[in-house]
């Protein structure tokens, strides 16, 4: 029943919409201004540009708040129609279920109030992506909309059978930083100076021959602060990291804390992740807690997750549990703990789930636990799904990820008869609809024929329509013809 998400989405999205959603080069995914123009002299001009700048820097929560302020402070501004789209885009990039739904509401408001807004076309395409993202994360209603839209786009005939729905996929996970390339640093085209390359080639050669002589020279390079030395410093970090000298660790730590260039600092933190020592762990913890640079803190979290030491794991857990820490960084700590997959980390996450009231953090914990192969993960997720004290959204997420973790169709089918909440039953029907197990079709057929709730029968029929099982086709034909 599952299909490749990317193929289905691109096949059913107009080319113009795909282009509109393609990240602008060099802007880290920020959408183009999309036919809107700057309105010089507009009272909201400065605030709107500040919002665009925040979006440009991937500061999505700040950008969303600033676009919202444009509407509240300057309701007659010419920028107001487009703020709905750009705020929705910022919320979309944060990725949480709540933000995705809020983004959808903003786009619906824009469509109702400002159907001719400059960003209206881009807004429709963004709405499709929001539905796709929600479907990937287990939202049954969004998955139905995606499947129906795909069917409509595939054929103008109203009787055409819908295409298979979007297959659920894991939420976007934090990316591990890439190792810098040698001999060029990962600075890109701005680090292609021929003189720098010649100098670094000479230093590299000297390092291979006599590290004791090369290291002091590299330290002098790293001590420079002029703008013309940025690329040299980036490459020098790489060369220092390749040497097993006694002071390489302290040099990298100094660079990570003091270099004015964020990329140089980032590379130094990355290479510290490759140094398995108590000193490196302490240094990374210090950077995580004292740095004011969120990107550097994120790299420090990754680096700690790569350290093979109980102390590093303890620090990751402490940060994930720290209520005063930035929410997005706590979520990344939870992700990396889930990737470790050891019993102690998963036990910690389950305990943290019971203590926190942060809905988004709970969502990330459910996903993190589902990624582990530890004993009891499925059972715990199903317990959350059945717990009436949990929010409906958390219960639906737990049910979805339990199925993704391998919960059997037999256990899910049994659970259907025990559930009292219609919304949760609807989610379970969706989960069964994603399974390739013939037993899932058997249960869907039973629901479609015998459930007392007409709406639930209709949901089962919808997902049967996505199945290649011949029994599903026979059942649908019987429903259409009135046969028994």
How many β-strand stretches? 0
Distance between the termini: 25 Å
Rg from alpha-carbon coordinates: 26 Å
Give the CA-based shape: globular
Structure annotation, total helices: 26
Poorly predicted sequence stretches spanning 5 or more consecutive residues = 1-30, 32-36, 155-189
Note the beta-strand portion.
under 5%
* Structural class determined from secondary elements: mainly alpha
In helices, the fraction of residues equals: 55-70%
Order of helices and strands: HHHHHHHHHHHHHHHHHHHHHHHHHH
What is the overall pLDDT average?
A: 80
Q: How is the biggest beta sheet arranged? A: none
Please provide a written account of the structure:
With 484 residues, the protein is an all-alpha fold. Helices cover 67% and strands 0% of the residues. The longest helix has 17 residues, at 97-113. The protein is globular.
């Amino acid at each position: 029943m599952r299909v490749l998400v990317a193929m289905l989405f691109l096949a059913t999205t107009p080319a113009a919409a795909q282009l509109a959603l393609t990240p602008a080069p060099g802007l880290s995914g920020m959408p183009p201004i999309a036919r809107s123009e700057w309105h010089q002299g507009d009272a909201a001009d400065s605030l709107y540009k500040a919002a665009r700048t925040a979006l440009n820097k991937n500061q999505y929560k700040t950008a969303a708040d600033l676009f919202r302020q444009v509407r509240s402070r300057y309701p007659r501004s010419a920028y107001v129609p487009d703020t709905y789209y750009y705020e929705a885009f910022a919320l979309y990039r944060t990725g949480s279920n709540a933000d995705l739904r809020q983004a959808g509401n903003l786009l619906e408001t824009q469509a109702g109030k400002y159907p001719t807004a400059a960003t209206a076309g881009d807004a429709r395409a963004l709405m499709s992506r929001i539905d796709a993202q929600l479907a990937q994360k287990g939202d049954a209603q969004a998955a139905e909309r995606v499947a129906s839209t795909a069917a409509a786009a595939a054929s103008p005939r109203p009787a055409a059978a819908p295409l298979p729905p979007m297959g659920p996929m894991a939420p976007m996970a934090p990316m591990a930083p890439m190792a810098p390339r040698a001999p060029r640093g990962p600075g890109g085209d701005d680090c292609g100076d021929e003189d720098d390359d010649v100098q670094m080639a000479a230093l590299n050669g000297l390092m291979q021959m006599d590290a004791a002589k090369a290291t002091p020279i590299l330290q002098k390079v790293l001590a420079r602060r002029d703008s013309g030395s940025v690329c040299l410093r980036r490459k020098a970090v790489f060369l220092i990291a390749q040497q097993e000298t006694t002071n390489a660790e302290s040099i990298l730590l100094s660079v990570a804390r003091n270099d004015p260039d964020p990329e140089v600092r980032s590379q130094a933190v990355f290479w510290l992740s490759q140094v398995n020592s108590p000193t490196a762990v302490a240094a990374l913890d210090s950077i995580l807690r004292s740095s004011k640079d969120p990107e550097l803190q994120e790299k420090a979290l990754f680096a700690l997750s790569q350290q093979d030491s109980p102390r590093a794991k303890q620090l990751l857990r402490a940060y994930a549990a720290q209520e005063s820490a930035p929410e997005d960084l706590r979520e990344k700590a939870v992700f990396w703990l889930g990737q470790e997959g050891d019993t102690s980390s998963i036990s910690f996450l389950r305990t943290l789930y019971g203590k926190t009231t942060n809905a988004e953090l709970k969502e990330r914990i459910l996903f993190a636990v589902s990624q582990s192969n530890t004993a009891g993960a499925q059972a715990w997720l199903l317990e959350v799904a059945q717990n009436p004290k949990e929010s409906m959204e958390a219960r639906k997420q737990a049910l979805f990820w339990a199925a993704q973790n391998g919960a059997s169709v037999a256990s899910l089918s049994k659970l259907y008869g025990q559930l009292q909440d219609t919304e949760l039953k609807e989610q379970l029907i969706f989960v069964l609809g994603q399974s390739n197990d013939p037993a899932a079709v058997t249960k869907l057929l039973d629901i479609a024929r015998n459930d007392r709730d007409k709406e639930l029968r209709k949901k089962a029929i919808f997902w049967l329509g996505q199945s290649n099982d011949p029994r599903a086709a026979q059942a649908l034909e019987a429903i259409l013809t009135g046969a028994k």
